[in-house]
Design goal:
Helices cover 43% and strands 16% of the residues. By secondary structure, the protein is α/β, with parallel strands linked by helices. The protein has one domain: TIM Barrel, CATH 3.20.20.70. The strands form two sheets. The chain has a six-stranded parallel sheet, with helices on both faces. Helix 5 links the parallel strand 4 and strand 5. The two termini are 22 Å apart. The structure holds 3-phosphoglyceric acid (3PG). 3-phosphoglyceric acid binds next to strand 9. Homotrimer.
């Protein structure tokens, strides 16, 4: 599963973090992001229609790899997989989730925001973690400090990232790619402004990961 996760994360400099209130806006947003060049998407489990939107994208939008985000409960793991998620993302990790995710057939990207959490995941064999909330938890300077003591661990910083600071993360040798909602802002989704989402995606897709 680690190799599969590595392959997914290496496909893109940026993973859009998406929250949908209906399947149709999910479909249109996913197409706009793909057409802009972003092909790995994270659909958060924060709304009643999240699973429906995830499944619709998996079934109907070609050329994208779709993960389920904001996985907080072991029950979410099962539901996300049944809806077709290719990977799972959590803002942190808990012992219940660790158990459920290790048995899941798809890879899991757990969140960390401290050195001890990062060490605990390393101990369990993880090589990738979401760094969340990246800005408030210490930003690029924090991640840079982990390169020497934890050289095997690679991060997907998410939280407070946009075009103004994304390169500060992407240039670090322990950053795989970045996550964020700036490429598909909620107001653009709500307004159906797919052109805006496509152009934001294009700008982000042109970024170079290390
Ligand atoms: C997430 O769950 O990863 C965050 O809500 C994304 O953070 P952002 O909106 O600051 O990009």
């Amino acid at each position: 599963k680690t190799e599969r996760l590595a392959a997914i994360l290496s496909q893109t400099p940026v993973i859009p973090v998406l929250t949908f209130s209906d399947a149709k806006s999910g479909l249109e947003t996913a197409k706009a992001l793909r057409d802009g060049g972003l092909t790995v998407l994270e659909v958060t489990m924060r709304t009643p229609k999240a699973l429906e939107a995830l499944k619709a994208i998996v079934d109907e939008v070609e050329g994208v790899t779709v993960g389920a985000g904001t996985i907080l409960e072991p029950e979410h793991v099962q539901q996300a997989i049944e809806s077709g998620a290719s990977f799972l993302v959590s803002p942190g990790s808990s012992s219940r989730l660790l158990g459920a995710a290790s048995e899941a057939p798809v890879p899991w990207l757990p969140g960390v925001s401290t050195v001890s959490e990062a060490m605990q995941l390393s101990e369990r064999g993880a090589t990738f973690a979401k760094f969340f909330p990246a800005g408030p938890a210490g930003g690029p300077a924090f991640l840079k400090s982990l390169v020497a003591p934890l050289p095997e661990l690679h991060f997907v910083p998410t939280g407070g990232i946009d075009m103004s600071n994304v390169q500060d993360y992407l240039k670090l040798r322990n950053v795989a790619c970045c996550g964020g909602s700036w490429v598909a802002p909620q107001d653009a989704i709500d307004a159906g402004d797919w052109g805006k989402i496509q152009s934001l995606a294009k700008e982000a897709a042109a970024l170079k990961a290390r």
